[in-house]
Amino acid sequence: MGKLIIGIDVGGTKVAGGLVTQKGRLIESQIVPTHADKGFRKSYAQITNLIGRLLSAAGGADNVKGIGICAPGPLNPKTGVILNPPNLPGWRNIELARMVTREFGLPSRVENDANAAGLAEVLFGAAVGYKDVFYVTVSTGIGTGIIINRKIYHGKNGIAGEGGHVSIDYHSPYRCGCGTLGCIEALAAGPGMARRARVMLEQEHGLSSVLRDLVGGHAEQITPLMIQEAAHDGDRVAKAVLDDTGFYLGVWLAGMITLFDPEAIVIGGGVSRIGKPLFDKIRETIPGHTINGFATETPILPAKLHTNVGIYGAASVFLPAGEEAGT
Ligand SMILES: [Zn+2]
């Protein structure tokens, strides 16, 4: 009935919030610092102040259908409890959905940020028109969301879709933050890319690269953005790093296609902004690493929602196709 949805995106450094219409139009957005280092109470005050301002902008609670909140995992969307996210120190077993519902008298749901972003891409982003989609966000980590019949698949305990922690190389020397060796996150997210460039430069001192010059010999200062720009300018080391990253992502996504046979794969996040060189390598790699004979037909789509994807995602759990996503 034309009611608005409040979407709140809680990150390690900032909380973004907005008002989203039932047709997926963002009509108001605001950002405040999370103050995560000051503990849960301070962060929670930031969140509730923001919700209060958005309620005023909406003209009162009567005009709002619900409050969707997305946050880094691990969390349980079924119970609305934030467990112990590494990016939010001091948040331990927080019954966030219940607290927000009690405070504002409106239904509230909590969702994993990658799941929420995946649902938003299906409802009004890159994957409009598809029902069964595997979503990936590649930035400082790799988050994934499994969308089946335009709804988030949560699994028994609410923690399905942690695809970034599927290992594709258990003999890799690189241990992931989760404790396992060779997770795709450890191999292909931003820090993994930077590390690969650093290792190449350290192992071959004679190798000339604009990356070496950019950081004045301090290879530990190399960033994914530098790699992207250097590759664009034809730097051999940077191009090799992008090639490796695309290969690893391709091998991993081939496995996901073998498992899910999705209608489409959407790739978002900062690393995905590298664009064509990365996507080309992923598309080239997939067919040789899956038994799915139709894999070449699986669209590998760049995400469409960027800046406000968290707000859209959080609001999505109250949109009709996502309704059963939360409790
Ligand atoms: Zn891992």
Structure description:
The chain is an alpha/beta fold and 327 residues long. The chain has two domains: 4-112 and 308-325, ATPase, nucleotide binding domain (Nucleotidyltransferase, domain 5, 2-Layer Sandwich), CATH 3.30.420; 126-302, 2-Layer Sandwich (Nucleotidyltransferase, domain 5), CATH 3.30.420.40. 35% of the residues lie in helices and 19% in strands. It is built from ten helices and twelve strands. The protein has helices at 40-58, 96-104, 113-124, 184-188, 190-203, 210-214, 224-232, 236-260, 276-285, 309-316, and strands at residues 4-10, 14-20, 26-33, 64-71, 75-76, 81-82, 108-112, 133-138, 142-148, 151-152, 264-268, 300-302. The strands form three sheets. It has a five-stranded mixed beta sheet, sandwiched between helices. It starts with a strand and ends in an 11-residue tail after the last helix. 47% of the residues are buried. The mean pLDDT is 93. Bound molecules: zinc ion (ZN). The site of zinc ion has 6 residues, from loops.
In short:
The protein is α/β, with parallel strands linked by helices.
For this entry, give a set of tags:
327 residues, alpha/beta, Nucleotidyltransferase, domain 5, 5-stranded mixed beta sheet, 10 helices, globular, binds zinc ion
